[in-house]
Amino acid sequence: MKSRCERDFRITPLLVLVAWLVCAFPLAWPNNVYAQGEPETGTGTPHRPEAVQDQINKERPKGPIYIAIPVAYRYGLGGEGDSDSYCSPSIRATNSSNATIEELIIGIDYWTTDGKPVGATITRYSNIKVRRQDTHYFYQLSVSYCRGIEGEVSVVRCVYTTGEDCSSAVRAIDFGTIPLRLNAR
Known about the structure:
This protein is an alpha/beta fold. The protein is built from 2 helices and 8 strands; from the N terminus they run ααββββββββ. It has a 4-stranded mixed β-sheet with strand order 5-2-1-7, with no helix packed on it. A 4-stranded mixed β-sheet has the order 4-3-6-8, with no helix packed on it. Strand 3 and strand 4 (117-128) form a beta hairpin.
C-alpha cells in the first residue's frame, strides 16, 4: 500500500497541467451576456430596455368579433301560428380579438325570407374579455315561430378598452337559427 505522500505527488502533476491549460488557452467569455450573438457596436449598450418596451407597445392585429344567433326560442301559450306566441332570439357576441371590448352596441333588423319586417333589436354589451362571449336574451319578434327569419346587423358603437374603435372588426355569422349579415354602410 502506498503512502499518502506518494498519492499526493501523482495528483500534483495533473493539477499543474490543468492550471497551465487554463492560463495558456483562456476561454472567450462574451463581454455582454445580453447581446445574444449580436456584435457590440460601441454606440451605446447592446441590451436596450427600450427595445423591450418597443415590443410591448408594438401594434398587434386585434382579430374579429363575431355576432351570431345560434338559438331562438318560441314562447307563448298558443299552438303553431297562434298570436299568443312569439319568437325570441338569443344574440351572442364572441370576442376573438386579443383586446378586451369595453363597449359594443349593435342593432339588428329582422325580416322573413319573403321580405316582411318582423322586428328590430338593439343590444349593448360591455367588458367582453379576450376569448369570451356574452349572450343577451328575451327579445320579442312579431312572428309566432322562429323559422324563415333573417337579420341584418348594424354596428352602432364598438370600442376596445384601449380607446380604439373596433367597428371594422365586427363580423356577422350567416348560419345558425337566424342567419345574419352585416349592414354595408
